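re the bet — no i am not wrong, look at it urself. input seq straight from the record:
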Amino acid sequence: MMEPWSMPDALLPIALVAHAKADEDKLGTALQRLAAEDPAVRIEHSAETHQLVLWTMGEAHVDVLMDRLRHRYGVQVDQVDVRVPLRETLAGPAKGHGRHVKQSGGHGQYAVCDIEVEPAEPGSGFEFVDKVVGGSVPRQFIPSVEKGLRAQLDKGLSAGYPVVDLKVTLFDGKAHSVDSSDMAFQTAGALALKEAAQVAGVQLLEPIDEVDVLIDDDYMGAVMGDLSTRRARVLGTEPVGTGRTLVKAEAPQLELVRYATELRSLSHGTGTFHRRFSRYDVLPAHLAAKVTAAS
């Protein structure tokens, strides 16, 4: 009996798009075959960034995979920048007024709703509270307001990323006996949320990973200096065997996209690292401005 060997983690992501429509039809099958023959490859279809990401071992591994796709399977692909799944939330409490009134021939559209929004605890998601009194918003249209809010949260309020950790309270509104409808109140809810976001301001959140870096002591200074430039927070170090050190840190995923290649260069091929998701944290304002402008 032989113990199964453990494969190293694939830590260098590359995002792929088909070069042409003909390549798009063959890409899925070709990638499945690549993954079947190479256990060091991991394929990820990101529902958040809508990207096809290939996790690889390094630049040489990427070259081999691209050559196989091109010559063995006849598929041409282009590499694009890997997008990190950011989030949005509101910077503070605010009120929003949504008014969707349109009159045209026949039935029009009429819906008005007033909401209060406030940031919620990290990780709590979205909470909708109904505090309408007196029937200002008919009971059958209150779920419509919530549906419109959820749709707008998925679309984002600033840079197109999903909005999280938010409490929304519907406390007032108006309806019309003929022109009010489910779609009208969905639209009014989304408009109210947009107005509240303009008042409160939107913060971008970035994912933070816990990172364990194992390096030779000879390269300790270079690796620690590099981590500081990546906005990493070193949590501690501990010796591992003779002449090796394990560095524990927290670092933003935005700074780790190509870390597998750069750590190999810094440590002359002797360093390794592992990463795992920890939490979301506020993206610094100067970086958030760049992301918003680019979106």
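see?? The longest helix spans residues 182-200. told u. also The chain has seven helices and 13 strands. so pay up
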